[in-house]
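Hi, here's the filled form for the chain we discussed.

Project: internal
Contact: R.S.
Residues: 251
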Amino acid sequence: MLIGGWEYSRLCGLVSIPRRLLYLSILVILLIYLASNNGNNPLADIVNGISLNPDLNYFFMGLWLLALVRLLSWQPAAKDSSPSLANISINSSLSILLLAGAWYAISRLRFLEMGEWWVLSLFFIVWAADIGAYLCGKQFGKSRLAPLISPGKTRAGVYGGVILSLLIGWLFIHLAPIHVVALPFYLLGVLALSLISVIGDLYVSMHKRSTGIKDSGHLFPGHGGILDRLDSTIATAPFYLALLACLPQSP
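And the returned structure, exactly as it came back:
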């Protein structure tokens, strides 16, 4: 998440190393605060398996409503124009909170019973949405979803992502050593997650368009940075945690 934060600082318009280090320092402080469970020793929490404050997750979910408003209202800036200080400040502050929210949700997922499987299920659902969108969009995609932000995304791709994520979510629950009681409710949540993953992808793409950056980094040759791989997961993690919390007799 810290590597993703370093990459995100550049997408927010922060150019100088000192400003990007300040961005990363704020993120580190926030993660330490969240891990401290309102002041308790974070190492003791990890050892004892104490769950973090669940109420904060709903705050992080609410932040994605603000991100969605910014996404829907976004317009490309004039050519050769530099981002304003206000935009840089808003984008930096919101992205730090969104990264922290994803880390918080994944951490809580991990410390559930069989938590490693729940985290892996989240990744599988998001990967399925991405792969389904790519394959279906390439084969059938004609109508563009958001041409100003991400010209390669199509409406057909969204449908393909939803279908494959539902299939993988269903298979994962049946094959992995985890269990849900209300499977139809869970799959309905997976459907919503596949749509939320598109929002996360588009939101990071919006920042790329604003700054003229193609890839967030070069950590993975041919694929970009870690943020290019985690953009959808950052959006879906808090909602997946909320989904499991709402399931009857969920682990």
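Let me know if anything looks off before we file it.
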